[in-house]
Amino acid sequence: MSHGIRRAARIDYRRDVSTICTKPKIVVSIVGDKG
Question: What's the distance, Cα to Cα, between the start and end of the chain in Å?
Fold first, then answer.
């Protein structure tokens, strides 16, 4: 079961990374709001 959870987390992580790479403007706006 733990292996399945880690695998799912890894997939979500890669999906987030791809979203950040393809949508840098959204990330910049979020960082600006936090800063």
Answer: 39
pLDDT in tens, the chain (35 residues): 566 667 777 777 777 776 665 666 766 776 766 65
Q: Where is 35: in which H helix or E strand?
A: none
Structure pTM? Answer: 0.25
Cβ atoms of 27 and 34 within 8 Å: the answer is: no
Crossing angle, helix 2-22 and helix 24-34, to 10 degrees?
100
Number of domains present in the structure of the chain? 1
Range of the domain at 11: 2-34
